[in-house]
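ugh ok fine here u go
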Amino acid sequence: MKVLGLMSGTSADGVDAVLAQFRGAPHRPRWQILASAAWSYPSPLRQRLVEAGQGQPLAAAAWLELAEAVTDAQAEAARACDPRGEATLVGCHGQTVWHRPPEADRHGVSWQLLLGPQLAQRLQRPVVFDFRSADLALGGQGAPLVPPADAALLGGIGGWRALLNLGGIANLTLLPPAQGPDRSAPVQGWDCGPANTLVDLAVQRFSNGALGFDADGAWARRGRIDEELIGQWLQEPYFQLRPPKSTGRELFGAADLGRRLEALAARQEPDREAAADALASLTAFSAAVVAQDLQRQPRPLELLVAGGGARNGLMIEQLRRRCRGLQVRALAELGIQEQQREALVFALLAWWHHRRHPGGLPAVTGASRAAVLGVRADPQG
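structure:
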C-alpha cells in the first residue's frame, strides 16, 4: 500500500512529505521510500505559528485562519511529493501549537492545528490525523510517537541502539538488542529537551530577524561555551524527570530563552562577542541534555541522528564529545534522510490505523494500554 506522510514539527519551518510503500506484517513491514519533498512555510506564517505556540492570545477568527493556512501548506507539500496522486492514504500530523503533558489531577492535552476533512477533500484521498488524542485519553503523554515506528522500520542490532531527532525538541528512541538477555526489554523513548528551539530563537533575536537558524553552527563556533552555566541548567526540574516525559515550545520558548540569555549576560566578559558566546552555550546545552539522558540508560552502541540539527556541525561535534565511546552517525547512512524520518513515521502510523494495529507504546508514553492512533477523514462526493 502506498501512503503519503506529512510532518510539520516544533521548529514550525515547514512540512516534510514522504511517499512510502508498506507491505507485510505491521510489526516489521517491508517498506520503501518512493519520493520525498519539503515545503517551507512563508515567513509570516512561521512567525505566527511560533508566537501562537508560545501562548500569544488569538481571536477565534485568527485561529481559524491559521488552521486554514497550515492546511494549505500540507496540501501543497502533498502535491509536491505525490503529484500523480499515487498514495491511497495520507497520514498528516498537523502543526502542534500547544502540548500539556499529564499532571497529577488531570489528563494531558495536545493541539495539532489542521482541518483534516478539508485536507481529505482537497487531496481526494482519506486522511488520518489527530494521532495523539487516543494515547492522551488513556493517560499517556501523547508523545513521543516515533519510537514504536523506529522499532518496526529499523529493528535491533547486537546491542542497544539509540535514535535521536534534533528538531525543535530533541527526542530519543532506545531499541533493545536483537539478541542477548535484553532482547525482550521494552522500546524506550522520551523528549530530552530543547534541540533547535532556543538556538533558532536566539539567532532570530541577534540578527534582528534576518536569519532563521545558525547554518552549520558557524556563528556559534566564534563563541565560548559556558560549561559551568550548562551544568547548572542540567539540574533544572525537567531534566531530572524520568521517562515517560514530553515537552515543547510551551516550556522551551521565548520566555525560557530570555531567562537563559540574562544568565549568560551576567557572566559575559567585556571583550567577548555576546551573541556568539550565547549561541555556543545554547548549542552545547542541547547536546549536553541528550548526553545526560543517555548516561542514565542502557549504554547504546550507536546513536543515529536525524532532524534539522543533524546539519549543525557544531551540535554534532558537541554530541560526539559529550557521548564519549558512542558511535554517532547520521541516520541517512541507513537510507532515511534527516528530513524524511518523521514524515515516514506518520505514513506508517496511518497505515497502522488502516490495519487497526496499535501505534502507541505504553512503556514510552505511560498510557494504560496501547491504542490504534488517529482519526480518519474521507473525501465526500
